[in-house]
Amino acid sequence: MKHYKPLFLLGLPIIIGQVGNILIGFADTLMIGHHSTEELGAAAFVNNLFILCFISGMGFSYGLTPVAGSLYGKGKPVRAGSALKCSLAANAFEGLLVTLVMTLLYCNVERLGQPEELIPLIKPYYLLQLVSLIPLMLFNGFKQFTDSITDTKTGMWVLLGGNALNIAGNYLLIYGKCGLPQWGLTGAGVSTLVSRLAFTIAFAIVLWRGRRYRRYRAGFLHKGWPQGMFRRLNALGWPIALQMGMETASFSLSTIMVGWLGTTALAAHQIMLTIAQFTYMIYYGMGAAVAIRVSNFNGAGDRKNARRSACAGFHLILMMAAVLLAVIFLLRGRMGAWFTHDAGVSAMVVSLFIPFFLYQIGDGLQINFANALRGISDVKPMMYIALIAYFFISLPVGYIGGFVLHRGLPGIWMAFPFGLTSAGLMFWWRFRRQTASGR
Known about the structure:
The chain has 19 helices and no strands. By secondary structure, the protein is mainly α.
């Protein structure tokens, strides 16, 4: 209980916030799917390109966790506040770079082999997602800071409020309620942009005015930019961003392959990814708690308890997986119909549950020990592990299963158990090796 209870109490608010985040995806997919199957297919394409940006951006902001967590463990709030300032600047710069890359991709979106009838739906929705990138990157910096100093409840409430605003905006703008225009998929994009701006501003107000953060504001407002801190955040953030980006890219690039199969396959793929994100984000909530606890112990020089905390985190993830998968198994035949009236799409969703169930333990394993490695600042090897698992294993297996063996969408999805499990085993081995000599 020494590690299970603190991890659970620390991770629960993060998980609740992540569930709120998932509700955005559920709400978007449900509302868009019932409005139009074509819009659902367009949303699938755009969302699975931008999820790569969102996850890699979140990964970049994770470079703050071992820094701020260690400073918190050492009782140095002024330096932690200075780290937050550097993190926000670094996140804004990273967001600008990603925005430029995605703008270039937007200019070539017609060349990616997607169904022609979806292009007029894809382009305006894409632009709205593009504009929301930098606010989201700044939000990531704020949230990682509060989580790192064990204030996980603030992020939970900000996320839940922003998600409620997004769901209300979806209802009003997708269907044209209360005298507003019926914008369909574009309305969902406008609602998402407004909610991301709102929760970023809300976080800034909390940190500027909250009593708890008074001692951290001294470091934030201190003149000058500590170059060593800025370099360290970049040195930690980019490897994590690349690791998480390559993991997400295996799904995003798979979406391009799915697009070759047509609109129905894209719609089914989007629905299943929305379901899959539910388990992923819950596991990641506990993984974030593992990173915080491990960074606190690592800052105190206690590698033994860092290792025990990571193992306890994986046990908690396994228990969560058992409960979640039991519920999903019982509801698997009905889930497709929640999102669409198209019987063909619903039938295709059912065919994806076998690979989905197969990769859950591997997904939990790689989330837990990737976060444990982040907690001890051992991040560079994570890039190479991700490259092997997701690009050399997952993507080729997906292409072979989908097109060489002619298994279609289920064949593409069978790649994920191979990629995620191999990554999990390598992360576990690396963490065990790095902490084996700890006291």
